[in-house]
Amino acid sequence: MQTDFLVIGSGIAGLTYALKVAQYLPDKKVTIITKAAADETNTKYAQGGIAVVNDLGNDSFEKHIEDTLISGDGLCNRKIVELVIKEGPERVKEIIEWGARFDKDADGDFKLGMEGGHSEFRILHHKDVTGMEIERALLDTIEKSPNINMIKHCFVVDIITQHHLGYLVTKATTDVNCFGVYVLNAKINRIEKIIAGTTLLATGGNGQVYRTTTNPSIATGDGVAMVYRAKGRIENMEFIQFHPTALYEAGKRGQGFLITEAIRGDGGILRNIHGEAFMERYDVRKDLAPRDIVARAIDNEMKISGTEHVYLDCRHLNIEKFKEHFPNIYEKCLSVGIDVEKNMIPVAPAAHYSCGGIKTNEWGRTSILNLYACGECASTGLHGANRLASNSLLEALVFAHRCYVASVAPFDNDDAGLQHPDGLLFGFKSNDINTPPPGNMNGVSAIPDWNAEGTSEPKEMILITQSLKELQQVMSDYVGIVRNNVRLQRALKRLDILFEETEDLYQTTTVSPQLLELRNMITVGYLIIKAASFRKESRGLHFNTDYPYKLSLIENIVL
Ligand code: FAD
Ligand code: SIN
After folding, report:
1. pLDDT tens-digit profile of 517-536?
2. Which residue of the set 122, 211, 291, 519 is catalytic?
3. Whole-angstrom Cα distance, residue 474 to residue 468?
4. I need a labelling partner for 32 at 20 to 30 A (CA). Which of 67, 264, 436, 543 fits?
5. What domains can be seen in the chain, in order of their start residue?
6. Closest Cα to residue 115, out of 295, 263, 13, 327?
7. How far away, in angstroms, is 12 Cα from ligand 2 center?
8. Which pLDDT score, from 0 to 100, does residue 441 have?
9. 322-371: per-residue pLDDT in tens?
10. 347 has which bridge partners?
11. Torsion sign across C-alpha atoms 28, 194, 11, 227
């Protein structure tokens, strides 16, 4: 199969990019591939909303920029922070035009939410199911786009580069070129190749690497692992954000239910097992301190009391308002026997968001030619050492747009600058980003088919399941909220064994999505441990008790 634009991932990042390219170039073919159902994405589960400066009230770009920089603890790229926050309102307006609805008050003004680390109410939301609403609106618009083809339940295995044409590709190769991907068609259980002029990775996060996470099962870091194998650059993987408040359900593994931070924005209070409101002992911003601080405080309270959770107390809140803003959470709590009006909600931190990922420039270009990345799989420089709440959906929108601008630029014959219905885009000219010719297809006919020779059906799938459990256990026990050198070394040793066993399976058995995900998650785990070991300080989400201070030399760790 050949396509002009190949998009991997059907969350907010992939869908937004696909729509923009398809609308601007109606004669070109845009193909979206997703390994699950179209809407099974991290995006669908987003609750709190999108942080964006409105023209209402006291807010300003400067305040949002400042909040983002403070949360990022010295590691944000200021230029990227400024452009995301300033371009954000335009991008949000576009998804509203595509049909996304955000809550309004009786006067027709947006209701704005508050979350940790924000100095103003600025979060647009659709009750407590913002992501589901955005995903719905984008998928509805995609349905009506004749030049977009969505392929579901197909698993992208690897990026095709000149390595597959027999050339030596190393980390030092400066012109690694992406020609498309190998993809496992699960229906016929065969790996096929898709050749593309331009490829976008929008593969989302990696929360499944940990035992408990707010992420659904698709979040296995596939894009990051693929780029690493293809010798592309990966950045800041040590900064894994643990959300302070996932619903605690005894013995539960895998995806946990999120209790949005917006509840603390509306006055919810964290209490330890003895009922004490403890956050004032940790930070003057109390329950609305940035996430790294709140998650570490909870972790500490749990360690002191020897319990597996603390509580979120909402009993003093107006229940009618609570039900109106958080109907999904209210119902979920009731379904597990918690009436939020009378009972406190047991909560514990869970792996939530990957601040690092595939290193990109300000136009979403990766270190591999013809390969773009945006959304959670990318490391753009916005989040630094700790993402500010609700900045992720915003980043995905802004960078999907920037990837679109950069990747359609070679098709723009008008040298006066890229034209768009809105006019000239940021005075941007196609030459400005030195874009290579679209899809240098020289030699693609020589790309070999996938070689499955010498492999046989796996005898026991349980081996994969057990290895996955081991990986999640190791990552949670040794590479969690609080780390130290001995733990990191232990984790690396355990992962070495898992890596060897899994590579052996990969070489000798026919591949399945489960095996491919395990292989990718081991790679991602390895990258997190390596980056964490290289960072000899504590900053943002990375806390190492052997180096409980910040270094004055501030660096990104690129692998
Ligand atoms: P996703 O939406 O995760 O989409 C990834 C896509 O890639 C999926 O379609 C998947 O199937 C596909 N894919 C992955 N690997 C492969 C492969 N190998 N082959 C084929 N397809 C593949 N952020 C905010 O800003 N505000 C919030 O309120 C908020 N709340 C959140 C609540 C929860 C519970 C969670 C989990 C996250 C929340 N976030 C929030 C974070 C935010 O939702 C995500 O960062 C964002 O939605 C990621 O979008 P994405 O398009 O990059 O990836
Ligand atoms: C939440 O609603 O608490 C999650 C927001 C986010 O992750 O940005």
Report:
1. 999 999 999 999 999 999 99
2. 291
3. 10
4. 436
5. 2-238+355-446 (3.50.50.60), 244-349 (3.90.700.10), 462-544 (1.20.58.100)
6. 263
7. 15
8. 52
9. 999 999 999 999 999 999 999 999 999 999 999 999 999 999 999 999 99
10. 247, 310
11. negative
Distance CA 107, CA 84 (A): 29
Q: What are the b/e assignments for 202-217, b being 16+ CB within 10 Å? A: bbbbbbbbbbbbbbbe
Is the model's pLDDT at 1 over the cut of 80?
A: yes
Give the ligand at the shortest distance from the Cα of 43.
1
Q: Of all atoms in ligand 1, which is nearest to the CA of residue 393? A: 25
| Three-state secondary structure call for residue 402 | helix
Residue 292, helix vs strand vs coil: helix
Closest CA to 198 of 366, 43, 84, 35: 366
Strand locations in 229-319, DSSP E? 234-235, 240-247, 254-255, 269-271, 310-313
Query: Which residue lies with its CA nearest to atom 8 of ligand 2?
Result: 390
Q: How far does CA 540 lie from the centroid of its chain?
A: 17
Pocket around ligand 2: residues whose beta carbon is below 6 Å from it?
47-48, 260-262, 353, 389-390, 392
CA of 427 to the centre of ligand 2 (A): 34
- The ligand that comes nearest to the alpha carbon of residue 130 is 1
d(CA 43, ligand 1 centre) in Å? 4
Q: What angle do CA 490, 491, 495 make, to 5 degrees?
A: 120
Q: What is the pLDDT of residues 280-310, one digit of tens each?
A: 999 999 999 989 999 999 999 999 999 999 9
Ligand 1 binding pocket (C-beta < 6 A) is 8-14, 33-36, 41-43, 45-50, 130-131, 155-156, 202-205, 214-215, 218, 222, 258, 353, 375-377, 390-393, 396
What is the strand order of the sheet 357-359 is part of?
A: 234-235, 357-359, 378-379
Burial 134-163 (b: 16+ CB within 10 A, else e): bbbbbeebbeeeebbbbbebbbbbbbbbbb
Structure tokens given for 176: 């690694």
Tell me the mean pLDDT in the region 236-265. Answer: 95
d(CA 86, CA 97): 19
Percent of the chain with pLDDT over 70: 94
Q: How far apart are CA 163 and CA 306, in angstroms?
A: 51
Residues forming a β-bridge with 348? 246
Contact yes or no for 138/18 (Cβ under 8 A): no
The residue to mutate among 130, 325, 390, having the most atoms of ligand 2 within 8 angstroms of its beta carbon, is: 390
Q: Is 291 noted as a catalytic residue in this protein?
A: yes
| Contacts (Cβ under 8 Å, ≥6 apart) of 459 | none
Residue 89 tokens, joined? 């309102």
